[in-house]
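Action item from last week, closing it out:
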Amino acid sequence: MASESIDLPSAIAQIASDIDAAFDAVLQNPGDARSRLYDAMRYSAIGGGKRLRPLLLSATAALFNVDRDAAISAGLAVEAIHVYSLIHDDLPCMDDDAMRRGKPTAHLEFDEATAVLAGDALLALAFEVLSDPKLHPDPFVRNELVATLARASGPSGMAGGQMMDLEAEKSSFDLATITRLQHLKTGALIDASVEMGAILGHVQEEGRLHLRGYAQNIGLAFQIADDIIDVEGDAETAGKALQKDAAAGKETFVSLMGLDRAKEQAQILVDQAIEHLNGYGKEADLLRSIARYIVERDR
């Protein structure tokens, strides 16, 4: 196993600062009748959150010496999709949450209509950023970035997983179905983040298999860790309500596997993810550190 010299907290702080600055630049309030929309977008997108997906994208891109500005722009697009999904998931018609990232959810801070529009606008912003020639001069690279993020966001990815999650309130899902649900709802965007870093690096399809294996393992480990936090965590630290799935009668990895087995499985997945990086040296230490962080975090 490689000896890691990466300062993960510094890397997390740096990506958070970079993404906040990027959102600040593209979401300048126009000072007209759209101001409330921009305020809601900025409220939801700037500050808070782990920025895990942009971190994964930039760490993967760095393996192939991609310009960091391009990686940050692509990371902004992924994070815009993630934030849009959180705004919509929190709505009364979805999960009906009151807190997100330690502050009131967008529909409570503003109103439901503004929250819906803020999510819609962030979704559109993601593809506007990816299609801009300033991100990358190669139109084929930009097209592949757009297609990858679109697949991860739609019915074959995050939106499909959210629909399954809504159905979970009315059905009893087994472990295989819960795994599929979480791969779509959470894992697809994590997969896309790693994939997009490789796309920026001009890595061909056959050269991405080990990175896909890494991403799939950490995506599943991430959700198992989330389910563990939901049982053992502190709501103030997590910045959101906990144990809502149990209250809604939804099956989770912990309810199906038990707490101890869930913890063991999450660690196995992290170990497998790191094994997928055996072809790399110290340049992949940040990706290894991220994998370990996924099961060690408290929020």
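Closing note: Strands lie at 99-100, 103-104.
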